[in-house]
Amino acid sequence: MEPDTVLREEAARIFEIGAERRAVSLSGHEIVVAGGEAEAERIPLEAIAGLVAYRPGPSWAAPALAALTERGAGIVLCGPNHDSHCLAWPVPNRRWPARIRAQLDLYPPYARHLLRQLERARDAQRILALETMGAGRRMQALKAAPRPLRGRRTVKRTRAETAADIARHYWPWLVGRGFRRDPARPGANAVVNSGHTRLRIAATRAVHAAGLHPGAGLRGAAGRAGLADDLMIPFRPVVELTAAVFVATGSDKADARVEAAFARLLTAPLRGRRGPVQIQLALHELAHSLAHCFETGAPGLDVHLPARQDPDALYAQMSDARDQESEAVELDT
User: Fold this and answer.
1) CATH architecture of the region 97-332
2) Cα separations (Å) of 11 from 164, 267, 328?
3) Segment 45-69, tens digit of pLDDT
4) Is the dihedral of CA 195, 254, 47, 330 positive or negative?
5) Where are the beta strands (DSSP E) in the chain?
6) Which of 226, 243, 244, 313 is the most exposed place for a label (fewest CB within 10 A)?
């Protein structure tokens, strides 16, 4: 396999519990989701990569939580706008304490060095995403533009100023001129929240599989979900581009079709430099690369990212979601 080829079949999926008054229990090797006195669904443990529940959430049986913990499946509780509010972290006893000690004792300048690598990879992916939406040159021109200063001609922008300018213009250029990123707003913001939530579940599984501590992120206490959020940094633009494509084609609500497409995006074969790349497996490789850096002090991270965004693949995912939705309607009728 080529170094940049990250591709494998994955049977586990992300499941959503959207209805109220559900009860989650364990029966043998299956998770049972019941509503009232009737069973709503039975899911084999091997098929669960993560669970998304909404407030007011379901009631959980302790054996079910223990089985999901042993499986390494993340549980994310979301608010009414599909924004994740709580992350249940699975930590079985077999993880490596020495690796976690190395992570907790990480030298702060070295942690910032690793974080800058992730942010540089994110900026490169943002340029690719904006190029797909026809605004790539704007971002490159913004990064190269000098900053005017009173009494002088121009001075070079600092890294913080450049990042602030990019963050201010990125969302309107990607989604639309009138768009403002606010997780509490409905509509297109809910679509972005839905994509980020599913990416956070995949990052949670990757951090867990690498035997790292979820609460010790690279940016200290500023991180929202610790290391999982740090791991998401380079992959966010791919999810955000998918959300922008949905909004551009009229899908500005986080319905079941959009959520299914985001779940498939994590295992979709995207174009890499030397072959297809899956986000889900690339997250696992990045987590193990971080663990190697924590233990050895290696200077560089191994980040596998799409070399070119593929809007045709995103439209194909939307078409598959529409087909699945029509099939479900036919079965119901």
Assistant:
1) Up-down Bundle (1.20)
2) 40, 10, 21
3) 888 877 888 766 788 888 888 888 7
4) negative
5) 13-17, 22-27, 30-35, 38-44, 48-54, 59-60, 74-78, 84-88, 147-148, 154-155, 270-271, 276-277
6) 313
